[in-house]
Design a protein that fits this description.
The protein is of the alpha/beta class and 272 residues long. The chain is elongated, with a radius of gyration of 24 Å. Strand 9, helix 4 and strand 10 form a beta-alpha-beta unit. It contains seven helices and eleven strands. Helix content is 31%, strand content 21%. The strands form two sheets. Strands 8-7-6-9-10-11 form a six-stranded parallel sheet, sandwiched between helices. It has a five-stranded antiparallel sheet with strand order 3-2-1-5-4.
Length: 272
């Protein structure tokens, strides 16, 4: 793979939600197989690109895969002396120079699904879009997902996936990646109730949050137990109210800040 295509390899890992490591030749002194800037992308079982083959590349791949298996890894530098006096794990490279390689972990980013992109949902999307997340926006109303309404997300850092689901928004749940955090905040209490029930029946989700009052949750909790057949431990997976307690204001933007802050805290806990 030509070096200019390393971006495509990183995007491929991101789309698969697989961790990886980007290896870059940072400095070269004397003779070396590749110039500074050469890149190699390492996944769990595949690699793309090259930093020169031989011992340099083999050792970098070994270390990259160790980083992939490490919780919350940090970038690091590796130095290689290319001469026949150095004993290497994967053979001798006698180019005569020295190479420094930078290994940058490419973690799997958090994923969030917002069911209901009304006033609060859109404000929350605006905040989360500024972060490295996979952001799913789900709504049964086409006008909530209209291009002109979502124009405020055009400069997003996040990868945004829009789902218009006119009949059964809960069908999106089974298509979400494992660990996706789910927020239920639609315009319709019946839709919210169906989503709560479906979320509890969907394995592998991250946190489940529901917007609403204590009275709404009391009705939902009763229905989930009596009609849904869920036990108390399962029902307790649903967090309501959502957000960080103590933040004043009921404006959509204030609620969104509170919910986003709580999610960011969850992301940090997920990494450890």
């Amino acid at each position: 793979m030509p070096d200019k295509n390393w971006v495509a390899a990183v995007a491929r890992l991101r789309a698969r939600r697989e961790p990886g490591v980007l290896v870059t030749v940072a400095t070269v002194r004397g003779h070396a197989p590749r110039r500074a800037g050469a890149k190699l992308v390492v996944g769990r079982t595949e690699t793309w690109g090259s930093i020169g083959g031989g011992n340099i590349e083999a050792v970098a791949i070994d270390r990259a895969r160790e980083l992939i298996g490490t919780p919350d890894p940090e970038p690091e530098l590796m130095e290689f002396a290319l001469n026949d006096k150095v004993t290497n794990r994967h053979g001798v490279q006698c180019c005569g120079g020295a190479v420094t390689a930078l290994l940058e972990p490419l973690p799997v980013v958090p994923a969030v699904a917002i069911f209901g992109v009304g006033h609060v949902g859109l404000e929350l999307a605006r905040i989360l879009a500024r972060h490295h997340v996979d952001l799913h926006l789900v709504d049964s109303r086409p006008d909530m997902l209209a291009d002109d309404r979502l124009d405020v997300l055009e400069d997003a850092v996040a990868q945004i996936h829009v789902h218009h689901t006119p009949l059964l928004p809960e069908e999106v749940l089974v298509r979400l990646a494992p660990g996706t955090h789910v927020l239920i905040m639609t315009h319709d209490h019946a839709e919210d109730a169906a989503l709560c029930d479906a979320a509890l029946r969907t394995t592998g989700l991250g946190s489940i949050g529901l917007i609403g009052s204590a009275a709404k949750w009391a009705r939902f909790r009763h229905r989930l137990a009596t009609e849904g057949g869920h036990d108390a431990a399962a029902i307790d997976r649903i967090k309501t109210p959502i957000g960080i307690p103590g933040i004043p204001g009921k404006e959509p933007a204030a609620i969104a800040v509170s919910v986003a802050a709580d999610l960011l805290r969850s992301f940090g806990q997920d990494r450890h």
